[in-house]
DNA sequence: TATGAATGAGCCTTCATTCAT
DNA sequence: GATGAATGAAGGCTCATTCAT
């Protein structure tokens, strides 16, 4: 019989790659990068250990690719650089969207928070993470600046922190956190 | 030389116990619970591995005791149950104190945040953590309730989240975070 | 297009077989039998892993066939059994040829020396190796015997050893080894 | 009970270190550096895998320390630098001693030959190996130079090669190699 | 015939924990 | 109480080999 065509193989690899990454996100989120064993990840993905290494150079590489692609997708959704200015409607949309993504990719954001407090692991991805956060802060500074607020940087950093804090609390116990009401207050107070 | 009295022995044990816990907090904060090896902790404490196990049953037990006592100390400082009511001055003091403790026990809080995102580890300490957070939330609900605010629980949870978020951001990069300005805004908006 | 004839097919197989063996010799020589991965060999040969296994039963089998054929070729060149006697001119030719083959098949000889010191691998090929060495030793014993030398076996084994030792040193660092001068001395002293 | 004294521990470590190294030499010699698993080495030494790593940083480090100390001992026996000149008696002694050491440390020399043909492993120890070989070559060049020989370097390299070749052949099959007779011829022809 | 995705045993290494001293 | 040598399970990773296509 003839071997699989190149296209078939590319397809297989694309799908399996995503499968591995998704399994890894779940396990990383639950157990931390260090606590997640490759064995567990591959078991969850239903593949052999060896196969993971034909897709990713190492466990670190796997993490990196997850974070990199996750952030790229996130940035794409917001595309915050479209003109660099934020209107009040856009501000509302921004806060809204942040929290709705949170509900969609819970595992990914759990992973995000577990990384942020682990300097050793952070180093692997921090440049990419800064790439994500920095433009948002810039745009917020601009936003508060335009509103005539005296200390726009403090406002920007505070809003960023609030988003982090709310996300964190929501993620830890999504069922009991009053996300919508909290969101309303944030928009009301910081728009 | 006369043999040590019982009191002296108890004292020695108490001090050594604290020494081990403090060394552990530092190493845990820097390397995560899983990344910190018992070897490193004992080396930092200047004791043998065997001795650590005469004070703590296991690495997990060591973590548990650190968290439990840390939280007890924290609660003591605020003693939020003294009368169950919060005045506006006390509110300001509360926010203020929260952040000043943050600066004092950076290591402990780093550890705290690294735990909060790990379900597996969380289980070990989550009852104790709820014991910490719950009374504060109750008092804040009361506080906003009295002020005639419509959704006091959402306000309380939001303020808790803000404190978490700001703490997290401050801890990750203390030198560049405008803690004082941010604090001012929080008090202004949420008092 | 007409289908390939049986002869063409046999030819293709023969060539591909040689291609794989040559790639393997290079990789084995560079990385040792154990250090050379099948992946590397197939990559060097430009074929798939599966195909290699349709030509050779295993990595060990591949090694065996390389050694067996290498030795057969070597024997053919000298054909030492043509009459069982060695003249002085033939002796000179023999030493000369040995070293010139060394320069031609460096990879093969590197492999040869890496095997000779590994009992486990040696077992695979040692019968064949004895088949190679023995007739040469016999002829040399005869040669020195005829010259009236008292201990012809010791002379024969010494000459064999010298050829090994010089080959080894030349192979390890061909650029700095004074092969021609050394050859001259050998012929002078042992003819 | 009181813990072991420092001296007791140093003693334990010294002995166990030697035990591990000796076991390793045997296994390395038999299987090659790459082919020898840490498991096998520790099994031969009768210890756990973990313990080996409290004595040596890695398998590579273990090899390095074996080679380094082996060579230091070898150099000490000859102390070739005592005056930099070689008399004819000393030459005889030198050849003699070389072969007698061979019989004593067969495993070590097998290891030596297995390294020489593995560039990747060689790199780990080649500086040390050059440190061993170079002075000998220098002294031999001097020796032949003084004798008025035209090409002393070729003589020196040849003698080195002969020693290698004879050692190699002797090591592969000690029982059938006529070491003493061969030695006599070497001394006769190259003194 | 030819491919390369997939497997799993085995490799080197780390580390929480034990225990003789 | 105190030490640190010793263990062994588990972790990340590699690679010869198989097999569906």
Structural description of this entry:
4 copies of one chain form a homotetramer. By secondary structure, chain A is mostly helical. Chain A has a domain at 60-190: Tetracycline Repressor, domain 2 (Orthogonal Bundle), CATH 1.10.357. Chain A has 9 helices and no strands. In chain A, helix 1 crosses helix 6, helix 6 packs across helix 8 and helix 7 crosses helix 8 (152-172). The interface between A and B is large, with 38 and 39 residues. Chain A binds a DNA duplex (21 and 21 nucleotides) through residues 1-5, 8-9, 12-13, 16, 37-39, 47-54, 58-59.
Q: What attributes characterize this protein structure?
A:
homotetramer, 191 residues, Tetracycline Repressor, domain 2, DNA-binding
